UniProtKB/TrEMBL annotation:
It comes from Streptomyces tunisiensis. Keywords: Membrane, Transmembrane, Transmembrane helix. It holds the Pfam family DUF948. The chain crosses the membrane at residues 12-32. This is DUF948 domain-containing protein.
C-alpha cells in the first residue's frame, strides 16, 4: 500500500477548492450573461418605443412653432389696428374737438345773454367775475367755521 504524504493531501485539497471556485465563477458568469441579454432586450424595446415618441414630439414642436408664428402675426396685426385706432381717435379729437368746444361755449354764452337775469333768484346768490376771480355779490351775515369771507 501506498501511504499518502502531506504534500499530496494538500494538492488534492487545493484542486478541490479550485474546482469549487471555478464552478461558482461559471454560475456567476452565466447569470451575468442572462442579465446582459435581458438588458439588451430592454434597451431594444425602449429604442423601438422611443423613436416613434421622438418623431411625435418633433411633429408637436413643429406644430407649436407654426402656431406661435400665427399668433405673432395676429399680435402684429392687432398692434397695427390699435395704432391706427389711436391715430384715428387723435385725428377726430383734433378735427372736431376744438370746434365743438367753441360751438358749445358760444351756445352757452348766447343762452346766458338771451336768458337775462332770473327774476326769482336772490341777489345774494349772484356773483361777479373780475379778471378771472369770482367775488360774491354780497357778504353773508353769518360766518361759518370761524373762517373769514
Amino acid at each position: 500500500m501506498h501511504t499518502v504524504s502531506g504534500g499530496e493531501v494538500a494538492g488534492i485539497l487545493v484542486a478541490v477548492f479550485w474546482a469549487i471556485l471555478v464552478s461558482f465563477l461559471a454560475v456567476a458568469l452565466a447569470r451575468l450573461a442572462q442579465t446582459l441579454r435581458a438588458t439588451t432586450k430592454l434597451v431594444a424595446d425602449v429604442t423601438d418605443q422611443a423613436v416613434p415618441l421622438l418623431a411625435d414630439a418633433s411633429t408637436a414642436v413643429r406644430s407649436a412653432q407654426t402656431q406661435i408664428e400665427r399668433v405673432d402675426a395676429i399680435a402684429s396685426d392687432v398692434q397695427e389696428v390699435t395704432s391706427n385706432a389711436s391715430a384715428l381717435s387723435t385725428t377726430v379729437a383734433s378735427t372736431f374737438g376744438g370746434p365743438l368746444v367753441k360751438v358749445a361755449a358760444f351756445g352757452y354764452g348766447v343762452r346766458r345773454a338771451l336768458g337775462g337775469r332770473k327774476e326769482d333768484a336772490p341777489e345774494q346768490a349772484r356773483s361777479n367775475v373780475i379778471v378771472g376771480r369770482t367775488v360774491p355779490g354780497a357778504r353773508r351775515g353769518k360766518r361759518t367755521r370761524g373762517k373769514k369771507d
